[in-house]
Amino acid sequence: MSGEDAAPGEPEAAEEGRRPLRTDLRPIVEAVREADAVAFVAVGDRFDDDLRYLTRFSGPDRPYALVVVPDEPVGRAVLCAPALFREQAEREFVAAARASAGEATADSTDDAEATFHDGVAREVRTESVGDHAGERAAAVVDDLVDGRGAIGSDTADRTVLASASIPHDAAVYLERAGNDLASTDAVAGARAQKTPAEVDRLRRVQRAAVAGMARAEAVLAESGVTDTADEKSKGDRRPPLRWADEPLTTERLRREVNQVLAARGVRDAGNTVIGAGPSAADLHYVGDDPIRPGETVLLDISPRGPDGYYGDVTRTFVVDGDGGWERRAYVAVEAAREAALDEVEPGVPAKTVHGEAAAELAAYGFDPNAGEGEAGFTHGTGHGVGVSLHEGPSLSGAGELRPGHVVTVEPGVYDPEIGGFRLEDLIVVTDDGYEILAEYPFGIVPEKRPDAR
Amino acid sequence: MSGEDAAPGEPEAAEEGRRPLRTDLRPIVEAVREADAVAFVAVGDRFDDDLRYLTRFSGPDRPYALVVVPDEPVGRAVLCAPALFREQAEREFVAAARASAGEATADSTDDAEATFHDGVAREVRTESVGDHAGERAAAVVDDLVDGRGAIGSDTADRTVLASASIPHDAAVYLERAGNDLASTDAVAGARAQKTPAEVDRLRRVQRAAVAGMARAEAVLAESGVTDTADEKSKGDRRPPLRWADEPLTTERLRREVNQVLAARGVRDAGNTVIGAGPSAADLHYVGDDPIRPGETVLLDISPRGPDGYYGDVTRTFVVDGDGGWERRAYVAVEAAREAALDEVEPGVPAKTVHGEAAAELAAYGFDPNAGEGEAGFTHGTGHGVGVSLHEGPSLSGAGELRPGHVVTVEPGVYDPEIGGFRLEDLIVVTDDGYEILAEYPFGIVPEKRPDAR
Predict the structure, then answer these.
(1) A 397-436 residues with CB below 8 A of B?
(2) Distance of CA B325 to CAs A370, B335, B358, B375, Å?
């Protein structure tokens, strides 16, 4: 990567970023053993994030399949890929998972070429026994299970673990081949607990996200107000801000952000949400509105990196505000953010974090249980982020925080008549607290930050 | 949209682009009637392109459901959306589908507020009878079917149409509620036949794609060769091209392209495939390679627009080539392209187009039936493009071309030892032939095009 691409001072991170990610499949094998099942099967396309996580295969847009079975020393995993994708599948699924020289592995064979970092031997099969990924998965299960002389024949029922939302036709193929399907939460559990390499990827994407934020803040700082103090005081709807000789709109601002993301090698993924005034109260606004002085401009930037990991950051600015609603909102949200972060450490029930943020917002007079379209705090305080933008753990859900959890902390308050104010950072839970993955300053009035282009 | 965003001279297109798209649901209602079914059901998340097409709802990343039933005058459609998305669902699914004033509709009621352009009344329901989209869909089917006094009670079996790949848990909810599932190709059929408004969206995205290509070509044209004629003639691996004082790589070039896409308001969607030399023979290469003089540089750009429609264009360039393999490849691929396009008109079997391209490549000495990793033509000549990058019709498949089909025409030849050469355009089949959606020049030697930034 060239000098202009890497952030200054992170050569090691750039180096680390080149090593392919690899997933430890032992929890999946263990789940199969614990359920007295014969195999785990996943079927989906490149948009299936479980498959992306399990295989690291960036995949085709038609369904493909993964089969994992217990075997000596740990297990075997077969990726059934379309023939046109063999080379890519071999590279991403098999080669990337081979143990490096001298690396201790769970696999005890002498042949270094054949070892895999987690003891799960991987192979790609493209020879098809039919066109359907579910049919191919069923055939591979048959082959691997019978080949090992395992329980039962084709006709005896045996259990296969799969996602509850596996495509129905794939489920039918598996069932017709004599498998009972049972669901498992092993994949979700594994995904929630990030490895240091995954945290590195998330940090890199989050750095790109905050670079995009810096660009947006700079554009807002450069934008001009055209009404006079006299006109402003009349309380009419004010004319839009002007930037680079044109009225500033949410779409123009979005394109500026997205260009920075592209220059950093991540994609906006359609997730650059920008609202201004009332549309800032719409949590997923991607339309085109003029941006007026005095309005809250809410920017929620969630790009996706080349390995599939997301970033997620939100800031809210006001150009030439009157210090009214947005000032109250800022003080409340800032306090809620601090209260939430103060709770974050291993062993704390996740919902405590949401509870503290909500209590703080309530103390400032905002309804902490507002419904959609009402004034107040309308959503949860945070969610996990990984190869999905929303995954476990939820900060409103069951369970305790553990080291390696990566979650957003994003209190916000909204008034459909006025606007919205949210502050969001991405944190990783550490052994004794948390770390913010990429820091970004706070403040209502937009400034040109030193590192903004 | 500001002046810098719209391409010059297309104010009407910019105007048209603001009108929300709306889908004619009559073919779905008709399929339900023809199958003697009671309803059509779809369940999926924002990555489900059928749902995107049917609802125009840009959707959440967790499952939601659509139910369509026949009713007077034509039908009813209910979108079950998460509560946090009600406003967006009302706007995108319901409001956008209302008939404009004075527009003739299939709906004969007097209340203009209540009419929909296709006579299918739309509503959003967020009140949940359970957390699962499949369970909610089953309840809505019960409600709509029983409410109309239609066939059967809760216990009598009735048929519901759905995609064969509907999530298995949703299928189980529907079956437990007394529905037999049957699959339908009505959605794929409707999607393959584009309306003028859809063609307009595709054209706009394709214009952004060719703007990205112009940027890549300009970068290649500006890139410098550092070896001398004497060094070059030695046949060693030549040093990479240099651009803006750094070695040029596929990733640097990709970021340049993706910035242009972002500036045009479309997203690269992870689909900017750039290979150089041997990696140009890898059909889905998104890695980072140095780009050397004499190598084929293959760029395949497939961005996605804000309404979900894709573009798709490929060109191949060589900087300081020796006129060897790439010249033969160019002549052959160019001839295959012409031969393929010569066949395109309504009523022609789609596979004739592929057959002509393959025959032409064979005439130039390239294997038209090469397998993956072999030298020759390794893929089909084209595929449909819409809200999926790959959809119907296939130019190697059954069926005839019809007006409104939008397909790629993309012959290419590859040699894993040398490189790849492909030319791809996106065309719409018209009443008497075809139209290229956004023209882009041809040529091996990169040039700086006038409209490239």
Answers:
(1) none
(2) 66, 16, 18, 12
Residue A181, chain B, CB below 8 Å: the answer is: yes
The 8-class DSSP code of residue B94 comes to I
Compute the nearest-CA separation of B261 from chain A (Å).
8
A180 touches B: beta carbon within 8 Å: no
Q: How many other CB atoms are there within 10 angstroms of residue B230's CB atom? A: 7
Question: DSSP letters along A56-77, please?
Answer: -----SS-EEEEEEE-SSSEEE
Residue A63 with chain B: CB contacts under 8 Å: 165
Q: B349 preceded by cis ω (within 30°)?
A: no
Question: What is the mean pLDDT of each successive set of 10 residues along chain A, which is 453 residues long?
Answer: 37 56 97 97 95 93 94 95 88 91 58 78 82 91 74 66 96 96 96 97 98 98 90 82 97 98 96 95 88 97 97 98 94 98 98 98 97 91 97 95 98 96 98 97 93 53
CB-based contact, B282 to chain A, within 8 Å: yes
CA angle B125, B130, B134 (to 5 degrees): 75
DSSP string, A401-451: --TT-EEEE--EEEETTTEEEE-BEEEEEETTEEEESS-----SS----TT
Rounded Cα–Cα distance for residues A243 and A222 (Å): 7
Upstream peptide bond of A303 is cis (omega within 30 degrees of 0): no
Whether A259 and B259 lie within 8 Å, measured CB to CB: yes
**Helix and strand numbers, DSSP H then E, in chain B:** 12, 16
Closest CA to A306 of B47, B254, B49, B310: B254
Answer whether B2 sits within 8 Å of A247, measured CB to CB.
yes
- In one-letter notation, the amino acid at residue B328 is R
Residue type, B212: G
CB contact, 8 Å: B108 with chain A? no
Structural contact between residues B399 and B293, judged by C-beta atoms closer than 8 angstroms: no
Distance CA B56, CA B92 (A): 6
| Distance (Å) from the alpha carbon of A96 to chain B's nearest alpha carbon | 14
Alpha-carbon distances, residue A243 vs A155, A316, A453, B5 (angstroms): 70, 18, 16, 14
For residues B97 and B22, is the Cβ–Cβ distance under 8 A? yes
DSSP A91: I
Q: ipTM > 0.90?
A: yes
Q: What is the pLDDT of residue B282?
A: 86
Q: Does B283 touch chain A (CB under 8 A)?
A: yes
Residue B43, token pair as written in the block: 């369940």
Domains along the sequence of chain B with CATH: 11-191 (3.40.350.10), 196-436 (3.90.230.10)
Q: Which residue does chain A place closest to B84, by CA atoms? A: A372
Tell me which residues of chain B have a pLDDT lower than 50: 1-15, 112, 149-155, 453
> What tokens does A76 get?
């075997």
What is the rounded radius of gyration, in angstroms, for the C-alpha atoms of chain A?
25
Tell me if A379 and B84 make a contact (CB, 8 A cut-off): yes
How far is it between the farthest Cα atoms of chain A? 87
Order across the sheet with B313-318: list the strands.
Answer: B273-276, B296-301, B313-318
Do residues B299 and B315 touch, judged by C-beta distance below 8 A? yes
The type of residue at A296 is: T
Report the distance separating Cα A445 and Cα B207, nearest Å: 37
CB B270 within 8 A of CB A267: yes
Q: Which of A62, A263, A379 sits opposite B255 (nearest CB)?
A: A263
Cβ–Cβ contact B136 with A under 8 A: no
**Contact residues for A157 (Cβ-Cβ < 8 A; gap 6+):** A178, A179, A180
Q: Are A51 and A42 within 8 A, CB to CB?
A: yes
Question: Measured between CB atoms, does B175 come within 8 Å of chain A?
Answer: no
